[in-house]
Write a structure and sequence with these properties.
Chain lengths: 332, 336
């Protein structure tokens, strides 16, 4: 019980619940089921992107190009859909994932094969991919009347009263959970981030892991890009600008360490929920969200400080007798 | 009496080698600069006109000032992503004071003061609470700009006194067509070069970035240096805010958005290792001018902003990737 309370995820979940209770005094409609569905819908993109970003950060990397990848693959899918309205919506989704995946692999190649620092690579490709989006779109928007109705309906179809978008996000969460906890590659990511040199010595290819995470990051951004276009009904070249910083922020709040090797699926999901609840509460209470950014900033700073505190205690005594001895020593 | 025979000869510096000199990053940047100027001069007839060149400096000087402080921080293995947000917050404070009827000297002090305070907060949190700067300054970026956005809402401050606006819009003296921002950039570049390359503290900055633990054990006050560099970065952002606000004559919540990444781009293109511990101010100055002239030259030729940013992104990756690829192709002989 005590160890459960000491876990960051539990604390974060309790903070979110406490925030919800406090908000419900000002705005009783916060507790409506419909509002919970709204929060889930509004945070779906952030959740999927944060999970992908987490896998990158786990390997001591960062992917700043995700927002541009999202816009680019969304635009590509929208343009293809516009050219042939008869194309099935699902095909467009796969096209988006493929475009995002290819862009992500380009990042992965530059990082893994050439050994360029990830922040430099993805800063560069952030600009390039964004420009690419403008070029393929020729600066124009793709409007909802240029998209097929089945494509527009895709993320908004309700199943059990919950939009398809939320179900897709839930599936992505489950996939990431299985991937990071139960597959060899997933466990290797933690090893690579925790200690790249040691990982290399036990026979893990660091470059291969890096390539994989950037490809995943790109593919998820591609999926989000297509869903973004069909959810909002427009594809704009400047869509989701500076979304990457929100994504990184959600990870940091969720306890993902930028030093690599530390982070959980639950943490990242709670991090996005935290930001989602703040935004939702502010819009319910205030009718506007001018202060949302400042409050999010405060939350990020607090989370970073808490993370830094907990990371200061390096290592943990695993053997029970060693722990007992240490406790006895500190009691004296 | 003969001195004991020395078994090893340790030279003070490596022997002079022409190919090493030619392959220095700064020399490559100078070549790139010549190329950019030549192409621009060929594509735009009056590009080399002195007044045109001085207009070009106005566009990049504010970012270049940010890049100088950012370079020192990155060399010390830290980063400050909140600089653009500090510009917004300082601009907000100046805008408020301007509506209260204050004039240029007060406004400038307010801008610099806000910048310094923000930098101190960043530095305090990073050095005292051990927060990793890349995550922390994403947080303070959101905090500082969030405050600016929350206070300003959808308004704009535009009532700046003429003496303040002339600070960013007029030449230093009417006889010499140089803008204050460019002059300040040159002066600060000199100061930064002096600090980094000619003073003991410069070696300490390098040492802190190269191996913070070893530096600390050697008596380098790593945390104090980091703190001061964050303050310097805040001050640079405050100064950039003064110049930018005076030039635009207005404050909007989204002022200077994206400047932090442009400053990092300049620093990286200038040959500073993003991993810390190496880099020169000369390289950063050259990179700032190259990027500025590329942007200015392309915009004169009606290339859209977005195509320019593609080229800058490609330039950034290409400039880092090409030497690596060339080294691979030549084999490992040249890298020892």
């Amino acid at each position: 019980m005590k160890s459960l309370l000491q876990q960051r995820e539990t604390v974060l979940a309790l903070i979110i619940v406490a925030m919800g209770v406090a908000v419900s005094f000002w705005a009783p409609n916060f507790l409506a089921v419909k509002n919970f569905v709204d929060i889930a819908t509004d945070t779906s993109f952030l959740t999927m992107m944060a999970l992908a970003q987490m896998t990158v950060i786990l390997t001591r990397g960062i992917d700043l190009s995700v927002a541009s990848t999202l816009a680019c693959s969304g635009m590509a899918a929208a343009l293809i859909g516009k050219a042939d309205l008869a194309l099935p919506a699902l095909l467009l989704v796969f096209i988006g994932i493929a475009v995002g995946g290819v862009l992500g692999m380009l990042n992965g190649l530059l990082v893994a094969a050439l050994g360029i620092p990830p922040i430099v690579v993805t800063l560069g490709t952030m600009l390039v991919f964004r420009g690419l989006t403008f070029m393929i779109a020729q600066g124009k928007w793709v409007h909802d009347y240029e998209m097929s109705s089945s494509f527009l309906a895709l993320p908004n179809v309700p199943i059990l009263g919950v939009p398809m978008l939320v179900w897709i996000a839930l599936i992505v969460i489950a996939l990431f959970y299985v991937f990071l906890s139960y597959t060899r590659t997933g466990r290797m990511l933690y090893a690579v981030g925790g200690n790249p040199l040691a990982a290399r010595y036990v026979g893990i290819s660091v470059a291969r892991q890096q390539f994989i995470v950037y490809a995943i990051s790109g593919a998820v951004a591609g999926l989000c890009g297509v869903l973004w276009v069909s959810h909002f009904g427009t594809a704009t070249p400047d869509g989701a600008v500076s979304f990457e910083l929100q994504v990184v922020a959600a990870c940091v709040i969720g306890g993902v360490s930028v030093a690599g090797g530390v982070g959980t699926v639950a943490g990242a999901v709670l991090g996005t929920l935290f930001l989602g609840v703040i935004e939702n509460a502010l819009s319910l209470i205030n009718g506007s969200s001018h202060w949302q950014m400042a409050i999010a900033g405060l939350a990020i700073v607090t989370a970073v400080i808490i993370n830094a505190r907990s990371e200061r205690t390096v290592g943990k005594l695993i053997l029970p007798e060693a722990r007992r001895a240490a406790l006895k020593g500190s009691a004296r | 009496m003969s001195a004991p025979a020395q078994r090893y000869q340790v030279a003070d510096r490596p022997p002079f080698n022409l190919t090493d000199l030619l392959l220095r990053w700064e020399v490559l940047l100078i070549a790139l600069l010549v190329l950019v100027v030549a192409i621009n001069g060929w594509a735009t007839p009056n590009f080399l006109d002195f007044y045109n060149m001085t207009d070009a400096t106005q566009v990049f000087s504010e970012k270049a000032i940010l890049a100088l402080a950012m370079a020192l921080l990155i060399i010390a293995r830290e980063i400050d992503l909140s600089v653009a947000a500090i510009i917004a917050l300082a601009s907000l404070a100046m805008g408020y004071c301007a509506t209260q009827g204050f004039h240029a000297p007060v406004l400038i002090c307010v801008g610099l003061g806000v910048g310094m305070l923000c930098g101190m907060l960043n530095g305090f949190l990073v050095t005292r609470l051990n927060a990793p700067s890349i995550a922390l300054t994403i947080g303070t970026m959101s905090l500082y700009r969030g405050i600016a956005r929350g206070v300003l809402k959808d308004q704009t401050y535009t009532q700046y006194p003429p003496d303040f606006q002339s600070f960013g819009q007029d030449y230093v003296t009417s006889s010499v067509p140089i803008y204050m921002s460019f002059l300040l950039f040159l002066v600060l570049a000199g100061v930064a070069a002096l600090v980094l390359h000619a003073m003991p503290v410069g070696r300490k900055i390098m040492a802190s970035g190269n191996n913070p633990v070893a530096a600390r054990f050697s008596g380098v006050p790593v945390d104090r240096i980091r703190f001061l560099l964050f303050v310097a970065s805040g001050l640079a952002a405050g100064l950039a805010s003064v110049l930018l606000t005076a030039r635009l004559g207005s404050t909007r919540p989204d002022i200077a958005s994206g400047f932090e990444l442009e400053a990092v781009t300049i620093v990286v293109l200038g040959g500073v290792s993003i991993l810390g511990g190496s880099g020169t101010i000369g390289g950063v100055v050259l990179a700032a001018i190259v990027l500025g002239l590329v942007q200015f030259g392309l915009s004169l030729n009606n290339v859209t902003g977005i195509e320019i940013s593609v080229m800058i992104g490609a330039l950034l990756i290409g400039a880092i990737a090409l030497p690596i690829i060339v080294r691979r192709l030549l084999g490992r002989s040249s890298t020892h």
